[in-house]
Amino acid sequence: MFDSHCHLDIMVGDRQASSGDPVALAAQAAQASVERIVEQARGVGVTRLVTIGYDLASSRWNADVARIHRDVYAGVAIHPNEAHAATPEVLAEIEELAGEPQVRAVGETGLDYYRDWASKDDQHASFRAHIEIAKRTGKALVIHDRDAHDDVLRVLADQGAPDAVVFHSFSGDAEMAAKCAEAGYFMSFSGPVTYKNAGYLREAAETAPKELILVETDAPYLPPVPHRGKPNAPYLIPLIVRCLAEVKGMDPDELASAIRANGEAVFGAW
């Protein structure tokens, strides 16, 4: 298996979690190394990781790490909460990084209406710019969508979506999943699909075709049950896969094979 979305820089403490999230701070206190995280994941059959950028510094860091570690790919972008920093100069460097062979995604970008750290105008402008970068570089677009489902879909339709679109840590319901499936967008499920109060996510997973499902940790955030309140890590991916397999009435190995094929369709073969 593989983890389609994690933040190695935050996990190893090279970048502090801007939100002050206690789980992320606990992960940093553990002082793990990239090598240790990769080794731990490989021990449970998670052999590939995609580490995702959220500002220029993290995008540079992730691109550098993916250049060194053959089991790691990178995504580069300015997070919607940082959209005010998406100047033409910054976006030009993001596009330059996106053109590197070990960088396989432009993300995470999108819209976040839960927080007001950046204006909606700035977020929309940044999102549209990243869509164009993904199309010019031929890389997958990884979307952060928080409380903004309708507008995210509208911008993708208006701007014209790249060939591969991934809704990271999918947070929609079954209706949203059906809309994404109709458009051919990939839905990446994370730890919350295992939470008792997240029945709507399991309904979404049941609706999503297996050909459009990915899995991720968003580590060090969003750990699956029974690890809530503790730092997340790529080695916990099997817990999410088993939950999804149960929801879809599939054999876990069969679903894992489908997800692995989806990952290669989105990010390319390792």
Task: Give a structural overview.
This protein has 270 residues and is of the alpha/beta class. It contains 11 helices and 8 strands. The chain has an 8-stranded parallel β-sheet with strand order 1-2-3-4-5-6-7-8. α4 (56-68) runs parallel beside α5 (88-98). The radius of gyration is 17 Å and the shape is globular. This is AraC family transcriptional regulator.
Q: How many strands, which pairing sense, and closed or not: the largest β-sheet?
A: 8 strands, parallel
Going across the major beta sheet, what is the strand order? Answer: 1-2-3-4-5-6-7-8
Number of helices: 11
In helices, the fraction of residues equals 40-55%
Organism: Planobispora siamensis
InterPro entries: DNase_TatD-rel_CS (IPR018228), Metal_Hydrolase (IPR032466), TatD-like (IPR001130), TatD/YcfH-like (IPR015991)
Keywords: Hydrolase, Metal-binding
Binding site for a divalent metal cation 1: 5, 7, 108, 218
Question: What is the strand and helix layout of this fold?
Answer:
Layout: E1 2-6, H1 8-11, H2 22-29, H3 34-42, E2 48-52, H4 56-68, E3 72-76, H5 88-98, E4 103-112, H6 120-137, E5 140-146, H7 149-159, E6 165-167, H8 174-183, E7 186-189, H9 199-207, E8 213-215, H10 237-248, H11 252-267
Parallel strand pairs: 1-2, 2-3, 3-4, 4-5, 5-6, 6-7, 7-8
